[in-house]
Structure formats: structure tokens, C-alpha cells
Protein 1
Amino acid sequence: MKPPMPTQLTVVRVILFVYVVLATLGLLSFFWLVSESGAAFEEAVALTGMPMGLFLVGMLFASGVLILAFVAALRMGSGGSRTQTLLRTALAMAILGALINVVQGSGHLGFVLVLVALVLAETRAAKEWFASTETENDQDAAPTS
């Protein structure tokens, strides 16, 4: 039987879902504002001060981070080393994205949320829980004769 997920990881899971919702609302609000302004998409991107290519790469990166964070939050309950690696990757990419936003002058709340989640995900209790659930996952995945 799998031990219950520690409180720290439950908080991490909630933070990830909140982060995904906030970031998704931020992305959607940008596109909504562009569509309501009546300006061409190229004009709206030019107002950001970024070249179109860099803007599109940033949007793809942000979308990828949101998907990764959402999947990590969904999978956290299964435990194991693969899930821990997925969580660490999602948090590292989210930190990078949030740091880019902070440098540009926004996204301070997102940065703090992800930083708190990263610290909580690396506590001893969290690491021990992932390690203890790894053994169960190995036994569940073993082929039967």
C-alpha cells in the first residue's frame, strides 16, 4: 500500500494548479486584448518590443511549460522516481519562465509561487516519499510469469 503523500507535496500540487491557471489566464488575456483592440497581431507584438520570432518562441515555451506543469501536477499522486524527475523538470522550466517574466518587469507572483513549490518539493519528506513509492512502482511494473 502506498503511503499518503506528504503535506509539502500536496501544497506543491495546489501551487502548480494555481500557477497553471494564472499563467493560462495571462496568456489568454493577451490574446483577448489583441483581438479586442482591432490592431493587427504584428502591431501588437511590435508594441511588446520583441521581434516576432522571439515572441513566438516565448509563446511556445510558455505553452510547453504550462502543459508540463499540468501533467506533473496530475501525475504527482503516483510517486516514484520518474514522477519526481517530471516534477523537478516542470518546476525548473517554470522557474526559468517566471524569471524571464520578472526580468521583463512582470510575473513576480508566479516566480514566488514556483520558487516556494521548488523548495517544498525538495524537502526530506518529499524525497523520502518519492523513494518509498518507487519500490511499489517497481513491483507493480514487474512482468508476471
Note: The mean pLDDT is 89.
Protein 2
Amino acid sequence: MEWIEKIIAIFKLPLKTIVVISLICGLILFLPTEFLEKMKLSELVSEYGKYFGIIFLITFSYSVVAFVILLWNKVKKWKMKKNYIKTACKALAELTLPEIYLLREFLFQDKDVIEVPYESTEFTSLYNKGILILASKKMRSYVFGHFISVTINPEIKKFITEDVLKLPKNPTQKDVDEAMRTRPSFLSSLNYINNLMDNFGHIGRFF
């Protein structure tokens, strides 16, 4: 039947449009007769009222179900986020020293995104715990390893404090020297490559 096909076609519309259709049909059906007469809609309601009723019931029911699903997904997402933060905070309290040294690099380099060895156990562990996430899927490959750009998961960034990183609030020169001494070993190789590429860039300007 043609009218059934038209109703089915409604479900292909965006949810906002379906809600608007439901609202319009509801107003036409439930507004006082006097108002409908003033709006010159009384004849339309008399002739097609049953269709407005069917469309209203279908679109209203669909809108309610869609709203419930949307609300449920938001609650589910909120619970997942809450559980993740709880688990991540627990993981932050149990970090190994190599993991802490890697996280310190965001502070020492004063960057939101840093490069780390893709094969390193520290990165793998922090990534699996949801503490680090990929900032890009692109990878730089060298003879000494593959490097990937990562960033701290924004959901827990505020929980990574000086205490978590085992850094004193008022460091002495001895503290600074110790922190520099324990920086990840891959930095020397990565800095060498970056400096080499910068030098090639400067040389290229002369040609």
C-alpha cells in the first residue's frame, strides 16, 4: 500500500526531522478546534485526520525509543568513562620506574605529543592501560627502531601529578641532575636523527 511505503520512508529521515513531524502532527491533533479553524486547518484535519493520527503514533513512538536508546548509550558511556578513570588512577599509582621516566618526557619536552619507540615495553604497557593514546598512525622508521607519536589520554591528564611522576615540588640541582640522568635512552638516537634532518634542511636552503 502506498501510504505504508510513505510511512516507512519517514524512518529514513534524520531523527530531528522525525521529531518535528511528530510534534506537528501532535499539535494538529490536540490543538483546540477554534485554533485550527483560525489557522484554516479544520478541513485538513477532517479529511486526513486518521493519517495524522497514524503518523503521530508511529513518529512519537519512534522518537521515544530513539531517545531512550540515546539516553542509555550516554549513561553507558558515562559509566565506562568512570570505570576507566578509576582503573587508570589505580594504574598510575602502580607505575614502574621506566613508565614514569617515559611520562616525564611530556613535562621535560614541554609538549603534548612526543615520539616514543613503538617496540618499547614502557609504551606498550602505558598504551594497554589507556594512559597513552596514539596522536597519529604515521610511524617513522630508522635502523634503530620505529617511532610513533603519542599523547596522554585527556581523560586522565589532570591525574598525572608531580607525585605520580615522583618529582619534588621544589627540586634541588641534585634532583634535576638525577631526573636528567634517568631520561629514556632512546632520546639520544632520536635527537641525533632530528638534528641531522634539521641540518639537511638548512643546507637545502643554499641550493
Note: Residues 200-207 have pLDDT under 50 and may be disordered.
Protein 3
Amino acid sequence: MRPRAYFLFELVAWPAAAWCGAELVLRAATGETGGIGGAGLTGMCAALTIVAARWRSRELALAGVDERSN
């Protein structure tokens, strides 16, 4: 997979992580706990996507894979 693809995965995951974080805070503040599990799970998946994309990008950079490779 091209190294820039991991950047795109991370780019899409950041808004999801931010949205879920805000939703969890608001749900906790208002006491409306219905749906908190789904928001938490989605936020965790988004955060793990960010970590995995950065990890893989760093591995590819250390391996010397450049943007022009297939």
C-alpha cells in the first residue's frame, strides 16, 4: 500500500475521534448515558486507527519506502 494512504486513513479518523470525544463529554455532563457505549467504541476505533496509521507510516519511512513506490 502506498505510504500516503495511511495519511488519508489518519486524516479521516481525526474528526471521528474528536466528535466521539465531544459526544462522550456531553453525554456525561448531561447524564444522558444512552448510546455512550457506541460512541466510546467508535472513538476507540478511530484512536486506534490514528495510532496504527502513524506506526505503519513510521515503519515505511524507516524501511526507505518513498512516495513513488507502488
Note: The mean pLDDT is 90.
